[in-house]
Amino acid sequence: MYLSLVGLTRGGAMTEFQEKLRQQHEESLHRELEALLSTADHADAQSSRKDFQGFQKLFHRFLQVKGPSVEWSKINRPPEQSVQPYEKIKAKGLPADISTCLSKLAVVKLNGGLGTSMGCKGPKSLISVRNENTFLDLTVQQIEHLNKTFNTDVPLVLMNSFNTDDDTKKILQKYKHHRVNIHTFNQSRYPRINKESLLPIAKNMAVNGENAEAWYPPGHGDIYSSFSNSGLLDKLITEGKEYIFVSNIDNLGATVDLFILHHLMSQPADKRCEFIMEVTDKTRADVKGGTLIQYDDHLRLLEIAQVPKAHVDEFKSVTKFKIFNTNNLWISLPAIRRLQDKNALDMEIIVNPKTLKGGLNVIQLETAVGAAIKSFSNAMGVNVPRSRFLPVKTSSDLLLVMSNLYSLDAGSLTMSKRREFPTTPHVKLGSSFTKVQEFLSRFDNIPDMLELDHLTVSGDVTFGKNVSLKGTVIIIANHGDRIDIPAGAMLENKIVSGNLRILDH
């Protein structure tokens, strides 16, 4: 049914038959959702009803979509003035009263993700990344330092998901005596739908047992409606907050930048910029990252999922699309309120197919927070230094941020002054390092990497204490072999392979 409907709509306007089919799908979905709500207690049913209303809107648009959401021929590079170099914004300097600007800011961290890809249970933000500090610890330290330094009160807002909310709230107790007010709200909980029937696979509203795989948090584009539904949006506006700085909690480079904040606050009222997207120059590692384009006279975020297959290589080219979205965003709170009230936020739907453990094919309908850029007035990009994009998605990223390449100060990581060039080494660790616990067990301590350019490690490899890596180092233990790099070893431009066991005598 799903294929017949979508296949037909690709051909142009909806026929009467297709329209009937669409209505049937929507009515069936509505009945199923009502049946699910009847299994919930009163409080849960109320919040879930709001979630389901959002889901039904998304589902309606999903059925309406006719083909790719962009016409390739209409894509242009953004005009020069719409993506400003960071240096130009920094050159303005800072006003004497930067604390006045800070008093109008709140920091929002996207905290809905689990650490499963790194072999951890619970919220990803609770993984230790540096000196026993978690992502959340570092975030709190950064904002507390800001509040103390400028005698201000920038609150921290965490957007949790139903997966991370309970564990995160337990941990928040430990920050009670820190100088930072912490608020949380939950992003929506949406039902995964069967790819064939387009109906929810959930049997009831529970999120565990047979239902564990039935629900999902619908991508960070959900921030606008869930923030509004939570009442927190209005609370912050009442407190005089004008902007939020939004970023992923696992991006350790996403600190509050005073120059960008000042730029926002210094615009004339009628030219107020309502949305800034921080972008940075693409390298070969970032070819899949979303990019800013000009489309129908608006700045727009183009994600790889929206690109017609024939143009994917062009999209990945570093020459045509030179920048990508870091997902560090500065957004006007009154503008969010206005667009929510008018139901005017237009974000492309990302259809995310999944295969569950039992082999069932489902789809998740998602949106991305940056995709709303086209709905805001005077939106712009700022091309920031690469140091503002330091995500930790894998154990290879974790090795970099735990090493002496970075210095830690008040929760912020900065590239060590002792490193002679500003780019980070390219690190590829094999599958034996994927899980954090196993990764940690393979290092007596983290090697000296100040002069490293490239590291590839594959197979059963361990590192002794005080190892130093320089230039290009490749260590490959074949299946059945093991390599122990001895304590104090210095490897410079070396390939190590075969079997190397260091036995204690």
Structure description:
- This protein has 505 residues and is of the alpha/beta class.
- The longest helix is centred in the first third of the chain and has 23 residues, at 42-64.
- A hairpin with a 2-residue loop joins strand 18 and strand 19 (412-415).
- It is built from 14 helices and 25 strands.
- The strands form 8 sheets. An 8-stranded mixed β-sheet has the order 1-17-11-14-10-2-5-6, with helices on both faces. It has a 4-stranded parallel β-sheet with strand order 20-21-23-25, covered by helices on one side.
- The termini are far apart.
- The protein has helices at residues 2-9, 16-37, 42-64, 86-90, 98-102, 135-149, 165-172, 223-229, 232-238, 258-265, 312-316, 333-341, 395-402, 436-441; strands spanning 83-85, 105-111, 128-130, 133-134, 156-160, 182-186, 190-191, 193-194, 215-216, 243-248, 275-281, 291-295, 298-302, 323-332, 350-355, 361-366, 380-383, 406-409, 412-415, 426-429, 448-458, 461-463, 468-476, 483-485, 490-497.
- It folds into 2 domains: 72-388, Spore Coat Polysaccharide Biosynthesis Protein SpsA, Chain A (Alpha-Beta Complex), CATH 3.90.550; 395-497, Hexapeptide repeat proteins (UDP N-Acetylglucosamine Acyltransferase, domain 1, 3 Solenoid).
- GO terms for molecular function: UTP:glucose-1-phosphate uridylyltransferase activity.
- UTP binds at residues 124, 187, 219, 250, 393.
- Homooctamer.
- Its EC number is 2.7.7.9.
